[in-house]
Batch of 2 targets.
Target 1
Amino acid sequence: MTFALIDGNNFYVSCERVFNPQLEGIPVVVLSNNDGCVVARSGEVKALGVKMGVPWFQLKDLARKHGILALSSNYTLYADMSNRMMSVLGTYSPQQEIYSIDECFLGFDGLPAADLVTHGQRMRQQVKQWVGIPVCVGIAATKTLSKLANHCAKKGLAGADGVCDFGQMNAEELDTLFGRIEVGEVWGVGRRLTERLAALGITTARDLRDADARTIRDNFSVVLERTLLELRGISCMALEDVAPKKQQIMCLRSFGAYVHSLPELGEAVSGYMARAAEKLRRQQSLAGAVQVFIRTNPFNPKHPQYQRGITLPLPESTSDTLRLTRAALWGLKRLYKPGYAYQKAGVMLLNLSDARTPQGNLFAGHRENPALMQVMDRINQQWGRGTLKLAAEGVGQAWKMRRERMSPAYTTNWKELPRVN
DNA sequence: CTATAACTCTCAA
DNA sequence: CTAACGTTGAGAGTTATAG
């Protein structure tokens, strides 16, 4: 088994640079929703020591000093660029698993082992030329190893130039290399596990690979044991060609300004439910339960804190925005307590089932007519999200998120294409 | 008691 | 000028609850 993992470099920043080459060579970050945290950093910013996920306001001094440019995230643009990148990469293998917006696995079986690096370099070159995004490629016998190889490719370790194939290295070379990689770089090893592993003297990828599998399972979990085996080249995770349907669908968001009143929370919750229900219908599912939650800002110690959620089973599984929204608003009314500054709300759809083989309900008095929802989805797809919506969503929306530094929708909206004279 | 539901924690991008 | 800290999903493990 041979896997390749292709990952866009600083993906969101690279997307922005495709359409604004002046961003090349200068420190750029892309911010999360609400312009809250740093979610993508250019190489220049990484070199300044800025960590992933840092709140933007904490960087103001550093940003001024080094002229860091911050952009609001433009997910429409990134999703479109991702689609282009994925379709180019998809031509390099019959098996592709799109793992996230900026990375995918490819199955590289059946190709001559000696040619894989060349193959990888061709992919990089073509993606750069056709889509404009720089990518790196990791190649190895398991998914976990290919992720690690990708890390090496990005860092230029072991003499890699954008492509790293562990299959070309011998045991000693791999030993040396793994001994220099911190265990936290391994896929599936996060901050918590890094701490606990360190207590056992396991600090590098090599330490974890050579640890006793049974001990790892007993002290940690079967998940970490699988990771360990994968580091040894024993493949425990298959390439998932077809994306399975989601088991839960959620939509949550921080507000651009604190919200205090029930009606305003209701508008937000209705809007989130409309989005969640769209996703639900797209994958042809029905929801059997709805969860709603609201909370104050846990980072603001001056405000009194309140956070609560409620799960409501539905009498009958449905994908009807009206019914789902009614349930959510009913739950919200039970949760709501006046006198708090709410900062975030969200909805979740649970107990999902297949819409094409609906479960019968002896007590269901009526079947719903999906035509209205179909029309709504089509109109919103053609004319833009939110063109047609329930009155419950409101029109004022003072709580809407901040996006003060957004780039135009270059690829999906003619009106926002820059003029060339 | 067991089986399941509900909830918490961790991780990833 | 001020105040300001993301979203979505999976899965394991634990605890609560039902029968």
Target 2
Amino acid sequence: MAIALPKTKRGESSRAVILQAALDLFQERGYEATTMRAIADRAGVSLGSSYHYFPSKEHLVLEFYRHTHELHAEAVRPLLSRERDLAARLRGTMRAVIITCEPFHAVAGSIFSTVANPSSPLNPFGGTARPLRDEVVALYAEVVSGSDARIASDIAEMLPLTLWLYQMGILYFWIFDRSPGRLRTLEVIDETTDLIVRLISLANLPVLRGSRKRVLSLMKAIVE
Amino acid sequence: MAIALPKTKRGESSRAVILQAALDLFQERGYEATTMRAIADRAGVSLGSSYHYFPSKEHLVLEFYRHTHELHAEAVRPLLSRERDLAARLRGTMRAVIITCEPFHAVAGSIFSTVANPSSPLNPFGGTARPLRDEVVALYAEVVSGSDARIASDIAEMLPLTLWLYQMGILYFWIFDRSPGRLRTLEVIDETTDLIVRLISLANLPVLRGSRKRVLSLMKAIVE
DNA sequence: GCTTCAACTTGAACATGTTCAAATCAAATC
DNA sequence: GATTTGATTTGAACATGTTCAAGTTGAAGC
């Protein structure tokens, strides 16, 4: 249960080697099939040592999640600095998500469920994983703000969080996708990103003004 | 792993007593805090006996889930045979969900995550839990079909499944709701059910015709 | 060089989900 | 009533996440 940041060179190296072993094994065998003993073995430390640096197996998953996010953020950087069209930015970002995660597809199910568990410290809605979630939301804020789309401020305010939620939905679909090359997920991404951009522009219609206000204030209330 | 339906009176009674013990303990202590040994103890059977009737602890949760659904279906029956207004039917049905589940609120998190786990046999998107999901979807089909709302057939086709998904979302929100009397969830239900009904009528607008077709055909494609 | 002390490491021990071979039971058959 | 046979029951054994008290290490202060 102790949250011990390494205080010595030796400690830092131990933590790093344990983490690397865990990332490798999660990717090779998945979450459940990776035992804490196997992680300790591959890292060349004792079982107890792992618990000195990571309070639980779930906390190691959080690091896995963070690692994936960093890969993703790096992958979309060129696109986000070049492209200005919102639909293209969003589509590219979503495609990059599933391309980045593709090596972990077989094991993603168990990892996703760990993260979605409301009673887990890893749940992004509140707890240890909150800072990481905020980073991902910030990425989507950049997707929006760096585009040349003119978006009403009330919508722009809620959009990043909504897109993060949307990404979660896409990932959940992708986990179940057994199609070759994950083509179905790619199609769904193309279609939904287009729809989202279209919906944003439709939201300016006078008939929709009322519902739009209600939806947005509801969302704001939900976020607290 | 064996799926053994009881073949004798004795077997039937054993299965029933184990199930009852499990339901009680889940409600009293939650999923994780309930051990298989505790279930066997309270049921007055040995540990191994439980595994003769239920392949795993998760399968006992499925029964818990089914039990809750039956309580809910019973609770909304009067409303559904009396009320004809769609918004009122939907609102009442959703309110009944969280009222029915209220006794399990403290333990709902761990149960929900078990069900949402894509690699679990309990996942409603495909596996053992599929029949139960179909029952819940059928309930929402009745909510729609028993109303006096005139709904275009392409929408009506996808609506029950969508409402089931919506119910899942509300439950997820409810799990995190710490407000007294779960008032916030009730407010969200009132607001969202209204919005849904409004959206259904808006979908007939000529401007929305295109998006509507695209959304519906996308949903149909996702369901397979 | 010696002492001290916090950081680090270790492996045994525990709790719990699951498996399984053996024992027990009870109904059908003779 | 004895035998057979399949259903049921049992508890020991195993795997694995987690805890913890005890041991080891190494640098700072003397």
